[in-house]
Design goal:
Elements (H helix, E strand, L loop, with lengths): L2 E6 L23 E3 L7 E6 L3 E6 L5 E6 L2 E8 L7 E13 L2 E13 L1 E10 L30 E14 L22 E15 L2 E8 L13 H21 L2 H5 L13 E6 L8 E7 L6 E5 L11 E4 L13 H8 L13 E7 L4 E5 L4 E4 L5 E6 L3 E7 L4 H12 L13 E5 L3 H13 L4 E8 L4 H6 L5 E5 L1
Parallel strand pairs: 1-7, 2-9, 22-23, 23-24
Antiparallel strand pairs: 1-13, 3-4, 4-5, 5-6, 7-8, 7-14, 9-10, 10-11, 11-12, 12-21, 14-20, 15-17, 16-19, 17-18, 18-21, 19-20
Length: about 475
């Protein structure tokens, strides 16, 4: 059975100051096949009023999306001859300490990396005849199963159906310690397959939405037999480690190999959430083309890079880290609090949105954990922890247009009041006397002040009295 394992690490007093890179799925590659009797060799489909989708069987088959105003510039395209939908079933391991997280991929039970296209269909309106054709489609999907909420749909929409599958395999390799390895397969008959549905629909004049949903696979999961001997051995090893720890005292930490500190089970809180044995996919990958010189910007508030080409960008809200790789501060933070130092990707305000130097832009909808894999020069692969993915592709001719179209949907912050931009917002901490001293110094040099921002653990009456006639921004936590 696939499981979610959560381990809390905040009880440890000393930690590895150089934590390893979390394991994860590598970039999955597969072959695209299509039914030449049912799928045309080349055709342009109109989507809504403003978009076109080109299907071509050249070079193994690919899909490109265009805006009617720029019919020669593709805003999104798959890689010719390669699968753009793939999936996996994997264990998930999460470690947490005081708001710092690491998400790992554990055992991978199944990877479906190859894809077939069996049908490309334009739907001009609700077609009741399609209901019987796709009886195995997931509940509530696709659009022809939905009986409500059709008034806002901008027809025509495009539905692509087919299967994903895998060959029998000998090896499974993973992303570990920053090194990517391909998943290898034997050239034998398909061992596992599942249906998929991809839907493209115009959302407004500058956005086209996409949805990917997977059906049930024919793969069966069997729970592993419990290992009493292995459990007894682990318990004996923990007891032996505790005895050594008490005998050696502090020298235990110095002599411990690889800088790791052994911790008893009482110092960790572990929770396992096991899913059903139906073997539903819990990883969906969407792969599409990119250019080698294409620069990627965005992903919310990021502190380490401007251009993310060549990086893996996880979208997860957590503490941003103390040091984030700069030494020795990261070493010290990691030593006293598990992974508190952070790395280039940790941030408390990420967003699954980007735009590129080629004026391409995409964002995801929903709350599933996702990773944008930009490590390959010719492609983007989005790995979503879930059984479906939904998002939008944006059209725009400049960065400002793309941001305008993006915020048109997700919302925009209100305009700042005049008082907050009429002077400095001064951040201070250290107590009442420190604030008074800083305030006096600023007034001596006639520095215009709009507000004081004070990060304090609790309100101090004397401090508030001192600043009661100023606009005061307070952040208590």
């Amino acid at each position: 059975m696939a499981a979610l394992k959560i381990t809390k690490k905040h009880h440890k007093h000393l930690n590895n100051p150089f934590p390893s890179t979390p394991t994860g799925l590598p970039s999955i590659r597969g072959t695209l096949f299509f039914n030449s009797k049912r799928v045309p060799s080349r055709q342009i489909f109109s989507i809504g009023e403003d978009f076109q989708i080109l299907w071509s069987s050249n070079h193994g088959g690919y899909i490109s999306i265009y805006h009617q105003s720029s019919p020669s510039r593709s805003i999104w395209s798959t890689i010719p001859g390669q699968a753009f939908v793939s999936a996996a079933l994997a264990e998930t391991e999460v470690e947490e300490s005081r708001g710092s997280f690491v998400v790992k991929d554990g055992d991978v039970h199944l990877v479906c990396n190859d894809q077939t296209i069996e049908d490309i269909r334009v739907i001009d309106k609700f077609d009741r005849s399609l209901e019987g054709k796709y009886q195995d489609s997931p509940s509530g999907y696709p659009w022809f199963e939905q009986k409500k909420g059709m008034n806002g749909t901008k027809f025509p929409i495009l539905l692509i159906t087919g299967s994903i599958f895998s060959m029998k395999k000998n090896k499974r390799q993973f992303w570990k310690d920053g090194t990517a390895a391909e998943i290898q397969f034997e050239d034998k008959e398909p061992s596992t397959s599942a249906r998929y549905w991809v839907l493209f629909e115009q959302k407004n004049s500058n956005q086209i939405g996409f949805q990917v949903m997977l059906g049930q696979s024919n793969f069966k999961l069997y729970p592993k037999p419990s290992s009493t001997v292995s459990g007894r051995y682990r318990r004996f090893r923990r007891r032996l480690g505790l005895i050594k720890k008490r005998m050696l005292g502090f020298c235990w930490y110095i002599s411990r190999p690889r800088g790791y500190v052994i911790v008893s089970s009482a110092e960790e809180e572990i929770e396992e959430l096991r899913v059903s044995e139906s073997a539903q996919f819990n990883r969906v990958c969407l792969t599409y083309s990119s250019e080698a010189n294409e620069r990627f910007y965005g992903f919310g508030e990021q502190f380490s890079h401007v251009n993310f080409k060549g990086k893996r960008v996880p979208i997860f809200v957590q503490e941003q880290g103390i040091g984030r790789g700069d030494q020795p501060i990261t070493f010290a933070a990691n030593l006293v609090s598990y992974r508190a130092g952070g790395d280039y990707s940790t941030t408390y305000a990420p967003s699954p949105f980007y735009m590129t130097s080629k004026m391409r832009s995409l964002y995801l909808e929903g709350y599933d954990y996702s990773v944008f894999d930009l490590t390959r020069h010719d492609r983007v692969q989005i790995q979503i922890h879930g059984s479906s993915v939904q998002g939008r592709i944006l059209h725009g001719n400049s960065p400002s247009e793309l941001i305008e179209h993006f915020t048109e949907t997700i919302g925009r912050p209100p305009e700042l009041p005049e008082w907050i931009i009429s002077g400095a917002v001064v951040g201070i901490q250290g107590g009442t006397e420190t604030v008074r001293h800083t305030w006096d110094g600023l007034r001596t040099y006639n520095v215009p002040i709009s507000a004081f921002w004070l990060q304090v653990m609790q309100p101090y009456a004397g401090l508030l009295t001192c600043l009661n006639h100023l606009k005061l921004l307070r952040y208590f936590f």
